Amino acid sequence: MWDPTLRQLFAVADRAGLHTIFFDLQPRSLALDFGSSSLIGGRTPRIDEATISAYLCGVAPSPGRSLIASIRIVPPGCLVRFTPEEAHLVRYWCVPTPHRGLLTAADAAASWKPLFARVVEEHLPSSGPVGITLTSGLDSTSVAAFGCRILPPAEWRALSWIAPELPMADEDALQQQVASRLGIPYHPIRADLRWPLSDEAGPHVDHESLLGNPFVPVWRETFRRGRELGVTTLITGISGDNMIGGNVEPLADLLLRGRWFRCIREIRARQRVHDIPLGWLLRYPTLGAAARYFLPQRHVRRPTWLGSKLPAVAQSLPSRRLLPAMTQRWRLLSDPRPAIAARQLEKIATTYGIELRHPWLDHRLVEWAAAVAPEAAALGGFQKAPLRLALRGSVPNEILDAPDKIYPTAIVARGLRERETKKIWVHLDNMRAADLGFVEPEPLRAAYRCYLDGERSTAFWPAVTLEAWLRRYFP
What we know:
single chain, 475 residues, alpha/beta, 12 strands
């Protein structure tokens, strides 16, 4: 925005960071755009090593930094006022510090229902057909349940991933129950046939971000199928876990606040619901989390294969000292990665003529989630207790009474451990990232061999996508 009176230029970012503005301020010039590629032009820019280090360590980059050292981003909830000499950053909104305003799951559910109904209504188009990425989880299910009260169920199209060849990742039966209960036409998509790297030589990347999302091939098929069905607006459940799930455990908070009997009840409930050993519950989410409260780790643990050239990554901390669960909630609410993933999926979706909308990224839900006490969000061994209460009677009880949803982890393993090993070894050989000092190739290859031998960690995957990005843009 140009202010003719002040003769100053302003760039404003939305609160969630879904629409990013990049800028390159030089002594005699200023360039802005919604993507960084045009700002780079034909030159070979210098890579921002701090952003690369954060990406490889699996954490969010520092606000305002991009992959290119000379290019900055207007952070979410901020505006930048440009003068001929410099850029002045002004914050107009920030993630609120979590507080125990809503102490019971019933109170949280009662306040969530009217708010969520309003948010969903504002994210819907005026008419259908409208798509919903329906899963067996509570996030997309809640969007569908409230959306069907605004647009008739016949106007919806449930675009749901199924995996009949991988039963441990197949949500088909539960998804059909939800769609049938709500009256939404159900359109399954074979996710087990579109594993990571199955449709291209490397992951979809560009100058703005390293899209480490291994499900890009399934998303492409989702967009293609949606467009085939006449969908031009697709609603997702992205960021629902960050708002009210995320496995935020209140056990250490209850212990430190002296609520020991309640702590014991919750430990027993988690034993019963999740079949977790008592020793593990005491050691990690209870006593271990309480100890880390007094001895916090400032820096993120570096992977063994991270290059020595890259700087250490510091963890962000809330503005004031919070108990362990409240700190974890603040980090989840402040995490920009769901918005980054949503932006990159939007780039793919637009090539199919589809607009993505994400109700769970609305700032009003962030403010609501910050006021939900940890013991109200995780109750009786179940995460997302307010949502389970609020949705009772609207969706099948099988969804609400499940201790956890089905995750498509086996689809990732099919690609990375079985079907696309040759492509990954190509990326791990003669690495450009190793030449630049970003990774140590032998420890990285050893980490991948451990994964092939059965280890679960896919921490090597960001290094593979980084290598694909470097080969594409920095040959």
